[in-house]
Please model this.
Amino acid sequence: MPAPLPSASVRHRRMSRLVNIGIPYLWLGLFFLLPFAIVLQISLAEPALAQPPYTALWQWVDEGLLRIEINLRNFMMVAQDDLYLSALLNSLQVAVICTLLCLLLGYPMAYAIATAPERWRITLLMLIVLPFWTSFLIRVYAWIGILKPNGLLNDALIWLGLIDTPLAILHTQTAVYIGVVYSYLPFMILPLYANLTRLDPSLLEAAADLGCRPMRAFLRVTLPLSMAGIVAGSMLVFIPVVGEFVIPDLLGGPESLMVGKLLWSEFFSNKDWPLASALAILLLALLVVPFVMMQRLQQRMEGSRP
Amino acid sequence: MRRRRWPLLTLLAFGYAFLYVPILLLIIYSFNESRLVTVWTGFSTKWYGELLRNRQLLDAAWLSVRIAAVNATLAVVLGTLAANALVRHRNFRGRTGFELLLTAPLVMPDVIIGLSLLLLFVAMQQTIGWPGGRGFTTITIAHVTFSMAYVAVVVRARLSQMDRSLEEAAMDLGARPLRVYLTITLPLIAPALFSGWLLAFTLSLDDLVIASFVAGPGSTTLPMVIYSSVRMGVSPQINALATIIVAVVTLAVVIAGILMRRGREVR
Model:
């Protein structure tokens, strides 16, 4: 840009700044950030038989007398009751195991697509994204028909003579693992693919010229260079899965209780809004660290991009 | 440097089978005559007929489509503004916070977004009397809040790769910045706006959890109807619905692919 800016341009720039930054900021501040403050406030309230079903945190009792009541019982209950703790731990366990499974299946797939002939890549990638565009709910539903006792999987296994009596898979933790990996696999593959296609192939050629075996070259060159993709993909799977509701609700059983489902039933069945809010606050606190990690990584990658 | 690729290709084939076999089975069994979804008794299209006579489901689908369309349009506007901010205004105060706010909705669990927005709407109703009831408006606001973040990702990628020489040429010829943006920049990023719109549309059409929290008693969206019927057990009508959705999506993707290829050839 020329050094002395004409005033019209300055005015335009100021206007553009106001519109482009101000409007989205305002929307997200009002409908994304502010609600968390209200959740925190209500997690400290008491459930009540009223409309809405919680007590006010503060009220003017008399002229100049403000009564503030902070109720910590919701958090104490969550800390003391085994149900809530085991649901939180189980959610973390499901998220960790499913992230690893997605990585185990997704990394080779992303690698195969990234190293496929160029004319095939777009189609192969399209085929990864396509299921994502069809209804998530219906794709989870598809697994009920496959996994149930007289479902297609058991029928096939019996027909093959591998088992005599149907396996109980639906409404177990295994079914939750299958459903989560199935639904979240594209979220792992896409960032890994983006990362692996940017990899400079001359590095691998140099390693091969220096006598490095392919497996070793992969472990020493490709894998470390794709770390950013691994972390990004893992966070895109891990963070939402911790709070997943639909999959544990439709495919899981009593022993696979997860915090998202618990929050749902506290809210919709027990109408205990303060307790549901306390669970949301705890879930949020749990996810802050992985989220900040993801954000840092993203910014670092942008900084290093030419 | 030719390596043996068959283990990798086997795994790739397995991965695609894993992604597609459940969908294929849904489609096959939507043409099954029996009510028992997994026992094949004969070819029939009767479930499609029943689906078309299911008033509750059709009403819900119409509501969902309207919400999705309004949501997608608003999300494209807001998401594009946010992308402009991130690409065109490199350094501004609060940029980190801005980026944080734009990334968080991508990964935030649905139960948290749904609960927190409902509590906001209830609190707003108590203090300023708006929104009067919960339904179309509240669901749309909730959907815009998370889908604008997805649109921003798509538009931002396109905007930062864009060749700016055309814009500069127009500026040199004396065009006003707003005019340059509307006549040069927007047409250049149109494919991203289009795919952002489609993405926001499907995200909205697909959402069960957030809509369940912020919907009022009178507003039932399509995923809510699917969910309650799935909870009752497997239903062949849902298979028929799944087949229709898959057919529409595949058609849209193929058409978009052809259009994009043609656009590239013209250029």
